[in-house]
Amino acid sequence: MPRDPRIWLGGGFILFLALAAIFAPLLAPFDPLEQDLMAATAAPGAEPGHWLGTDSLGRDLLSRLIHGTRIALTVAFVAATLACLLGTTLGLLAGYYRGWVDAGVSRLIDIWMAFPPVLLSILLVAVLGAGLTSVIAAIVVIDWTRFARVVRAETLQQARLEYAEAASALGMGRGAILWREVLPNVLPVVLVLLSLEMGIAVIVEAILSFVGLSVSTDTPTWGGMIAEGRQIIYQAWWVLVFPLGALFLTVLAFNQLGDGLRQWLDPILKR
Amino acid sequence: MTLIEARNISLDVPDMSHQALIGQRRKLRILKNVSLSLKKGETVGLVGESGSGKTSLGRCLLRLHEPSEGTLAFDGQDITHASPAQLKPLRRRMQMIFQDPQSSLNPRHTIGSILATALKLNELDAGETSIAAILGRVGLPASASRRYPHQLSGGQRQRVGSALAVALKPEFVVADEIVSGLDVSTQAQVLDLLKGLRDEMGLALAFISHDLSVVRSLCERVVIMKNGEIVEEGLTADVFANPKTGFTRTLIASIPLPEVRPGWLDQ
């Protein structure tokens, strides 16, 4: 059992968000799309029931925040997992088989890293067309290099250790050594990266929503809310601050979970 | 009867200190024209300073490295350039005990699972009782099978390394500096263990070491290496009594004990 409070706090907050996303229709006090122009830009608590206030169209901020969790977490889990699978597979193959596989993958990573990531994602979504699938595709296409780079380096180092050679002396085949011996030793690093990548995916989705390239505007997203709030920051600060705070706490939770996992899983490797 | 025979073996490795921009890396020859053969039940000491190529030779003998030149035969069968698939049936018969069991035992698997994998790979019984028997033979309790390598002491880990190698009942074992990281009493235990296994199973043993006093007590024949070449070889008693080269004399003079009686470990 990990004793690190970062794992419990980070993981707990993410679990809390996941529950909020799953039970959003039950938890949200209002319909997130219901407009009430009489109660537009109400301050937090000013109108009955609107605890976090309303936006310029009178939509309830708390309900929109809760519904926005769905897009944020979907992107975080799906995009990060897919990027992880792609990058880890390529990194493992490159680090283990070396030679032309490694040369190919490494050059590909070098070329990839030369593109500015935010611009590339905006470009990709613009080409693919806005929508949840495009956002996920953009994140996977851009961020697989994070996994590939680190996993390749770790695999190179692990495969050089004697246990890999010992397995080969016992008559184990190359593929089996990679799968049974090397992979379990690379997995902790992958787990840590995965949780960090989920935080990054949340940010990228918010950026794309902010510039209007994510899901359609009638689905509430944090990035979309931040974009709306920016325009009326002097009249209604809460429209900007609450989604920003949610984004901040979510990314912080993923990062803390990642750091906690790193410390918790590492000593086993070192000892 | 000759079990393993290496003839005029050379080994080239890529020179990591020179990176060519285009084309092949420069090669570095770390074994030069080495010949060595072992009979069944024979123990040969491979001695030399670090970097002399004794570990590389040991790995070549087991075909963990592929020799660049020369021929290598195991039990009459040429395995110089045999493929992994051709080597697989021979793997059970030749084993290595690694220098550093800390890195040769996978930190993510329990001792029991490491042993079971080795047994299953070679189609031997991997049941709980046979694993307990193997552990018992190297003086470890059956409960050790549930532990991870980092939960054992250095001496216990080295026993697991030996257990792993001898579990498959091999005919030829390369022991690479297996006592160099251990304190003297643990050294003696591991050596006793190895002697027992050798006498019991009649295995041929290539014992790599830079500790001449250990070699003297364990090996019938000794091979002295320097810079990837064999500089002297012969019966241990002859080489120690009558060293032919200056290098061997220097090595022997460096033994810390003034008088080494053969069999000092048995007392």
Describe the structure.
The complex is a heterodimer of chains A (271) and B (267). By secondary structure, chain A is mainly α. Chain A contains ten helices and no strands. The longest helix of chain A is centred in the N-terminal third of the chain and has 37 residues, at 61-97. The two termini of chain A are 18 Å apart. The model of chain A has no long low-confidence stretch (mean pLDDT 89). Chain B has helices spanning 54-61, 84-91, 101-104, 111-121, 128-137, 154-167, 184-201, 212-218, 236-241, 246-253, and strands spanning 2-14, 27-39, 43-48, 69-74, 77-78, 94-97, 172-176, 204-209, 221-226, 229-235. In chain B, the strands form two sheets. A six-stranded mixed β-sheet of chain B has the order 6-7-8-3-9-10, with helices on both faces. Chain B has a four-stranded antiparallel β-sheet with strand order 2-1-4-5, with helices on one face. In chain B, helix 4 (111-121) runs parallel beside helix 6 (154-167) and helix 6 packs parallel to helix 7. The mean pLDDT of chain B is 85. Classes of the chains: A mainly alpha (271), B alpha/beta (267). Chain A binds chain B through residues 161-163, 165-174, 180-181, 184-185, 268-269, 271, and chain B through 62, 64, 84, 87-88, 91-92, 95-96, 98-100, 103-109, 117-118, 121-122, 148, 150, 164, 168.
